Amino acid sequence: MKRNFEEWFSTFNDSISSWTYYTDFEKIYRNANVLKNELNLLNGLITSKNIEQDFRNLYNEYPKVLNAIPILIAKRLKETITVKTAEKDYYFNFKNPNYSIEEYIKFMRKSGIFDLFENHLISNIYDYVLGVETGMDTNARKNRTGHAMEDLVEGYIIKAGYVKNNNYFKEMDTNSLKSKFNIDIKGVLEKIDKKINSKDEKLANKRFDFVIKKNNTVYLIETNFYNSGGSKLNETARSYKMLFSELARMEGIKFYWFTDGAGWKNARKNLEETFNVVDNLYNIADLKSGIIDNLK
Fold first, then answer.
1. Is residue 141 within 8 Å of residue 21, measured between CB atoms?
2. How far apart are CA 236 and CA 44, in angstroms?
3. Considering just the CA atoms, what is the radius of gyration of the chain in Å?
4. Cα(98)–Cα(55) distance, rounded to whole angstroms?
5. For residue 173, what is the DSSP state?
6. So where are the chain's domains?
7. 20-62, pLDDT tens digit by residue?
């Protein structure tokens, strides 16, 4: 029976938030604990009467204390911190010091870090860094949304009785598909890339989120969840529509696309066009109804 797009679209979800979507505390604690020794050493500066000299002494005794400085201004240790002034351009490296201690002291003073310590605006630097890490972790929510959709789909795959690395596989590229299943679709993906001419990630370079082997058919499964709209959604709908069409001509292979999210509200036209010409486009409601259990 022909599915109705309006009915299907009305079952889309506004959120796919898991327990750790908003804040991944395990990750926060892990990041902070890497620098725990250095942060505890810096705690001594909070009560310092001569903070510049005390920091100089601390650095001479324990140079690695510099590793903890970037996180105090919400930057990662691996990042070069650039400061441009009228007198000089600075490119501070806190892992492998590239300036004198006096210039690092200047950084601490000019950036406001010493002021943070001297005026007792915080009482414990480790606790302060936990707060900084929490704020920085919110930037990872977009990535967690994608992973949450993958995890959800994988849960239904496992529930349906498939076994990882036996009859279902994660993140397989075209080379892996060819070597394991003797399926060569690289030319098909390159053909679609040329037609779409997208500035985003090329299909030919992609990894399919999941691959299921059932009887004589290999199922390529792509998953995504969009909280917000954008041009990428339109490009994705167009490219996947073409992918459905191209793979439908090949024996022993099928493409399934699971997508959802409020982001599609502003890109529903292209999604509807894809929905109307392909069979294997599904959402979370379809997962709940047992689509994975009944792969065709």
1. yes
2. 53
3. 26
4. 17
5. -
6. 5-13+140-294, 35-123
7. 778 889 999 999 999 999 999 999 999 899 999 999 999 999 9
